[in-house]
């Protein structure tokens, strides 16, 4: 199931890669797409709790599903 | 003990914060200082293994102590 979350604090491609890698560290099979302009992270294959944990640990702001 | 590591792939303040937060997720008491221009991360209170794990999980490049 694909879900999209609002994630704040990402300002460049390095930030986007960081969020993607952090999610995949917790859910290796996840498919992650980051839209920097929309502050949106779309994830297939990880739970909302995993995404929140990964985003928190990576230092960005998890603001829930959109 | 303070150690300095070379970390590649950080290009903005969001990246720097991400690395700092990832290290503190593994070593909560660590003191972390990131120098973006020097690609250097100085850490007190975390092992090199912890720093490597955190940097890897956050999607940046750990290149060892400098």
From TrEMBL, chains A, B:
Extent of the signal sequence: none
Record's keyword annotation contains Metal-binding: yes
HMA domain residues: 1-63
The UniProt record lists the keyword ATP-binding: no
Coiled-coil stretches: none
Molecular function as annotated in GO: metal ion binding
InterPro entries according to UniProt: Heavy-metal-associated_CS (IPR017969), HMA_dom (IPR006121), HMA_dom_sf (IPR036163)
Keywords, alphabetical: Metal-binding
Stated name of the protein: Heavy-metal-associated domain-containing protein
Organism: Magnetospirillum aberrantis SpK
Lineage: Bacteria, Pseudomonadati, Pseudomonadota, Alphaproteobacteria, Rhodospirillales
